[in-house]
Amino acid sequence: MDEAGIERAGTAPIEPLLASVDSVGDVPTLVDEIARLQSRGVNDGLDFSSEPDSKDSSLTIATIGLGGLGLPDRDYYLRDDERTVEIRGAYHDYVATQLQNLGDDPAAAAKEADAIVALETALAKAMPTRVELRDPKATYHPTAIAALPAMGPHIPWTSFFSQFGAPAFVTIDISVPAFVTSYDAQLSTTPLPAWKTYLRFHVADSYANALPKRFADAAFAFRSGVLYGVKEQLPRWQRCSAATDTALRTPMGKAYVMQNFPPAAKARAKALVDNLQSVLEADIGTLDWMGPQTRAHAVEKLLAFTKKIGYPDDWVDYSTLTVADGVPYAQLIERVRDWNHARDMARIGKRTNRTLWDMTPPTVNAYYNPTNNEIVFPAGILQTPFFDAAADDAVNYGAIGAVIGHEMTHGFDDQGRQFDLHENLRDWWTPQDAVNFNARAQCVVDEFDNLSPLPGLHENGKLVQGEAIADLGGTTIAFKAFERTAEYKAHRKIGGFTPEQRFFLAYAQVWRSLQTEAYTRQLVVVDPHPNDKLRVIGTLSNMPQFRAAFACAANTAMVRKDRCQIW
Fold it and tell me: Which is the catalytic residue, given 112, 283, 334, 407?
């Protein structure tokens, strides 16, 4: 919050990083620098981290993924429609602006931005589409360390890994081998000065919000203004609170839970989760498209779910992280990133820690993790309008109940179904059952291909199918669970609405949102979730329960003629 102090410090907090980049004299030292910066949160490609082994999730292994782009997706570099070209031009100007903020001459900065965009375009060409990345088998390539020089001959692999402080290992998962090969090719074909400028820009971009106002304003103008259409920054205290939540999960999380999530709320949320799990188990037993062998495995997997509600049982211990007054904001961020990176590296070669949470307690979101077969509901989403311990069942089942069912059915969507109850990537479906599932999934793909968040802009059905399947399945299961309640059976109106109507109104209300046109257009490219409005229309138009609740005629828009159904 000390904006005056940040202005006085100028770029001094990141000067050690910039000086290290400036000292690079050849490709081996360049690769070492790429590794050093990455451990401090700089997005520069060859994304090295740890993850559970997809085929033996009990073990955490080393992995190299995708990275190094300043735009949100590969398509922004490769498409030539008017909107994309406009964004690409604005990104070039943003790159040049940040280089000028570092002290470069405007004319030189413009030429440097040309080189940076060209380098990132070359990297983007080697990246699969987001639809292609949905297949977990397509991104699993365990590779012996001895085989890496053939894949990337210009990368000093031993030195590269040592810069991260990684422990010794003999096998690594290369998410996309073609990307590593392409990245390696750029190390030899892109001039060293262009690489150094690329790294300098990504340092400024990564730390922009902790640097003087000119850096933060430039980042906001492009990343929020151009990409999202946002006109005004959030108040600084909100931005600092969000940064602190990301950096220091335990103190922020404990304070949030103490104020907003009492034990009674957790108990009711757990009862909802347990009820929906029971209903989904019963529902699986009635599916005529799933054979007995697959059905038995599906039930086993469902009953093996780990259910995490509200906050972790084991809080992160930050006692070894030094946070002191008087240290510049950017340096504090660097320390936190370095500390978190060391924790990540320490997991390589160890048994997978299944107590970890991907989200912080105040987060308004939830997730299913296939390599841990877990459903996770932070305290942040267990608040109104999603959940209210004092509200009637119709509201809670229509809102958080649909979210709970959504995360459960993720275990059986186009991605989750490829992992077994032991969290391993294994095909446990009979061939015929897989065909039956895929046919039903295609119905969802076709439906969303024909839905438009804006005139002339269509959803990508293959990209959003997993979330759309989970929306339909989760809401269906939540309604079936609601039918078990005393409130549903009593069939008394509240506020003039029947219990069924209140259920669907609650579902619609949690997806109410305000979006700029620019933000909506970006989400269609990068987001695996459907547009919020279409999550309601696309889901409920498939549900006969919705049609009955509001007495919709067969020829109305909210009654889909060729309705999709999985659960």
Answer: 407
